[in-house]
Amino acid sequence: MDEYVVSAVFQTHSAAEQAVRKMGEAGLPIKQASIVGQNLQSTEQVHGFITTGDVARGSAGVGAWVGGIFGLLVGAAFLWIPGVGPLVVAGPFVASLIAGLEGAALGAAGGALVGGLVGYGLKRDKALKYETAIKAGSYLVLMHGSETECSQAKEILSAQGGQDIALEAKGK
Predict the structure, then answer these.
(1) pTM of the full predicted structure?
(2) pLDDT tens per residue, range 43-71
(3) Which InterPro entries does the entry link to (predicted)?
(4) Got the DSSP string for the chain?
């Protein structure tokens, strides 16, 4: 049986998390889903006074998201990727990304994130687009599985507002 990968970009981590939850509600295997995002710890205040309570409330929201989504997805890592910066990865994509980092450390061409995405089954041009989206603050949702599972996931990702959605056969 061929393995496929479906991917989509979301503008917010809450939208990415909601899409993964919808896939789970539809009976898709969440253990095969991953979310990749950056800057989850940053909080911006435009003007005014800030108190420790303000910071705690903002951090609690980030902590709730990280805890909630990590509870759904198998495996999680916080990594510092050269050229990308801090990256939080939840799901089975962690192993592929770590392999990409090892390859980059050994002098492989291209960035570690792009290498990890290509190793996961995405085409290089799509991986480059996704790296750019992640650097810009978007979140990438990935899921691997059978053609039927990934086709169903693609429909859900689209219905949830995913952008730049792709469905590809791994290794082809």
Answers:
(1) 0.71
(2) 333 333 333 344 344 444 444 444 444 44
(3) GSP17M-like_dom, Low_temp-induced_all0457
(4) ---EEEEEEESSHHHHHHHHHHHHHTT--GGGEEEEEE-TT-----SS---HHHHHHHHHHHHHHHHHHHHHSS-EEEEEETTTEEEEEESTHHHHHHHHHHHHHTT-SS-HHHHHHHHHT--HHHHHHHHHHHHTT-EEEEEEE-HHHHHHHHHHHHHTT-EEEEEEETT-
